[in-house]
Amino acid sequence: MPKHFIKLKSEKTICGNCKEEFTGGGYVNHCPHCLWSKHVDEDIPGDRKSTCLGLMKPIKVITGKREKISIKHYCQKCGKEMLNKISPNDNMEEIIKLSTKHDKHGNI
Ligand SMILES: [Zn+2]
Ligand SMILES: [Zn+2]
What we know:
Layout: E1 10-14, E2 21-25, E3 37-38, E4 55-63, E5 69-75, E6 81-85, H1 92-99
Antiparallel strand pairs: 1-2, 3-4, 4-5, 5-6
The structure holds zinc ion (2 copies).
One zinc ion is lined by residues 15, 17-18, 20, 31, 33-34, 36.
């Protein structure tokens, strides 16, 4: 697979869900407080090719190889699902809460 040259720059963002400010950038585009994301990437995390900009709800926590944890986000506007790696700043309580949910769209 060829390497993609994505500039990793920091972006100050206001979360569309909880209205907290956070610094995203690069592959991190979800809010560390409530884990909601914004639909800015189209094919690969960080490409910023999407014009949807819908709010993406965290619906599932997926534990992969070597205990790598990802969050599955679901776009409320267009229905796209995307996987995002968690970052060390993420709210662990929210991640644990989310990991106990099983419904496809995160409803209890
Ligand atoms: Zn938030
Ligand atoms: Zn979308």
